[in-house]
């Protein structure tokens, strides 16, 4: 658990990883039970299959929540950095254009003076 009793995203994903390992173990246990020379014990198969399905549902739910959370996470969305940079770029472009226009004006003035 993280601060304030909440689990972090990483902790939830680690729990999913442990559940996946458990699901694989359950699948192996079911295969062993099916291969039992005396025949499979229905109660054990039922218990393992029930736990398997419950774990799969929990894994899916947690992964959906984590994917949704990751898609909603936009750390720079409320930041004005991109707007400020865009503004600075526009200002530099305008300064360049003004320099070019001043240069053109000087050329025109020189041509008028030369005529």
UniProtKB/TrEMBL annotation:
Key words of the record: Activator, Nucleus, Transcription, Transcription regulation
Protein name as catalogued: Mediator of RNA polymerase II transcription subunit 11
Subunit structure comment from the entry: Component of the Mediator complex.
GO molecular function annotation: transcription coregulator activity
Gene Ontology cellular component terms for the protein in this record: mediator complex
GO terms under biological process: regulation of transcription by RNA polymerase II
Keyword Ubl conjugation attributed: no
Coiled coil, from the record: none
Gene giving rise to this polypeptide: LOC105061013
Function statement: Component of the Mediator complex, a coactivator involved in the regulated transcription of nearly all RNA polymerase II-dependent genes. Mediator functions as a bridge to convey information from gene-specific regulatory proteins to the basal RNA polymerase II transcription machinery. Mediator is recruited to promoters by direct interactions with regulatory proteins and serves as a scaffold for the assembly of a functional pre-initiation complex with RNA polymerase II and the general transcription factors.
Location of the protein in the cell: Nucleus
Family assignment from sequence similarity: Belongs to the Mediator complex subunit 11 family.
């Amino acid at each position: 658990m993280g601060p304030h009793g909440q689990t972090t995203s990483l902790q939830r994903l680690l729990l999913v990883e442990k559940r996946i390992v458990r699901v694989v173990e359950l699948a192996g246990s079911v295969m062993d039970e099916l291969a039992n020379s005396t025949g499979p014990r229905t109660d054990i198969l039922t218990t393992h299959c029930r736990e398997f399905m419950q774990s799969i549902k929990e894994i899916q739910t947690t992964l959906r929540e984590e994917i949704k959370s990751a898609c909603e996470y936009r750390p720079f969305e409320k930041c004005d950095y991109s707007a400020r940079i865009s503004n600075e770029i526009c200002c530099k472009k305008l300064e360049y254009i003004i320099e070019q226009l001043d240069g053109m004006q000087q050329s025109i003035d020189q041509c008028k003076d030369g005529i």
